[in-house]
Amino acid sequence: FKFYDGYSIPKVKRLDEYIDYVDKFPLIDPPQIFGLHSNADITYSTNRTKSMLEKIIHIQPKEASSNISGIETRDKIVYNLANDMLIKLPKNFIQHEVREKLINMGILNPMIIFLCQEIYRIDRVIRTVRNSLNDLQLAINGIIILNDSLRQILDSIYDGRVPIDWVN
């Protein structure tokens, strides 16, 4: 009977020989033993690292106790980042103008159909980002309530990640 990588059951009669033989096995089983590709180990390590780093970022303190020696607070940093993003964000598409231009280019052309779909998608993303950044600034200023969605956006911007609401 053969195990992976040439290991086989030895013909031994004493318990200590079995223990010595088992101790020679590798500590980490390769993915091939489970019928997986060798890239499965890479994917596992990548996912484990991402999970660990997300947990480290998640447990970091989120609130500053006070403004010590001119250091900006977390809310002020996020407010400035949101303001900068709003300035750089392109204007919303005007749907009827886009439709007219696409009709002039030949609406039944497959590339035009694809372009139309992509324009609608990017317009939806631009509107979502603009609305959430405006709401976030209002919440930081205390004008509206900071709900869970805005809290997640605030945390993501502060941590340098893309907010989940923007990915859809």
UniProtKB/TrEMBL annotation:
Transmembrane segments: none annotated. Pfam families: Dynein_C. Residues 46-166 form the Dynein heavy chain C-terminal domain. GO terms for cellular component: dynein complex. One of its GO terms (biological process) is microtubule-based movement. GO terms for molecular function: dynein intermediate chain binding; dynein light intermediate chain binding. This is Dynein heavy chain C-terminal domain-containing protein. It comes from Rotaria sordida.
